[in-house]
UniProtKB/TrEMBL annotation:
Domain HTH tetR-type: 13-73
DNA-binding as UniProt keyword: yes
Stored PANTHER family: HTH-TYPE TRANSCRIPTIONAL REGULATOR RUTR (PTHR30055), TRANSCRIPTIONAL REGULATORY PROTEIN (PROBABLY TETR-FAMILY)-RELATED (PTHR30055:SF230)
Protein name: AcrR family transcriptional regulator
Pfam families in UniProt: TetR_N (PF00440)
Keyword Lyase found: no
Length: 197
């Protein structure tokens, strides 16, 4: 059980998991446009008000489905090399974009966020306040272990990986994220980091 921020009431993590799982199922079946909070709540065995206490709207919920913490912040390996961390970033992006339903959801989410600058900022802050510092520290620690000076802003690597993966699946399809593509992306990202030496 976790505590709901700002309310002091206990927040059941089982409901969170059920809602996120149900939302992923709905996305796979009907895509982003067809997803409703009513359907997600019904499948998760909860209510729309309970769902909205956790995620104010559809875009918030889908953002958490698409960018789960276990993908954006996997367990740390204290012995990871810089190449290990780069591979982890590429693999995470491939997980997000490799599934057709997820890919369509990302595109739908981006479209919905366009006219909602305040919501877009909230969701951007979620990544920047939690994921970016974690990635920054991982890359800096790995670079230090490898005897390399990391650039001032190593999170540029994850931005390049994210954008490059999205572009790749749009141009190559989901099957385009094969071993050859991943190896090429690793070389590109490694070169970006090396440029900061």
């Amino acid at each position: 059980m976790t505590t709901e921020v700002g309310t002091g009431r206990p927040r059941d993590s089982r409901i969170d998991a059920a809602v996120l799982g149900a939302a992923r199922e709905v996305l796979s079946e009907v895509g982003y446009a067809g997803l409703t909070l009513t359907e997600v709540a019904a499948r998760a065995g909860t209510s729309v008000p309970a769902l909205r206490r956790r995620w104010p709207g559809k875009v918030h919920l889908v953002h958490h489905v698409l960018f789960p913490s276990e993908v954006t912040m996997p367990p740390r390996n204290p012995n990871a090399t810089l190449d290990d961390e780069i591979v982890a970033i590429i693999d995470g992006c491939a997980v997000i974009f490799g599934d057709c339903a997820t890919r369509q959801a990302v595109i739908g989410l981006i479209g919905d966020l366009g006219p909602q600058a305040d919501v877009q900022q909230q969701l951007t802050d979620r990544l920047r306040d939690v994921v970016w510092p974690d990635v920054t520290q991982r890359l800096r620690d790995a670079a230090a272990r490898d005897g390399i000076d990391a650039p001032d802003d190593p999170t540029m690597v994850i931005e390049m990986a994210f954008g490059g993966t999205l572009a790749a699946v749009l141009m190559r399809g989901g099957d385009g994220l094969d071993d050859a593509w991943r190896a090429s992306m690793r070389r590109v990202l490694r070169a970006v980091l090396a440029a900061g030496d």
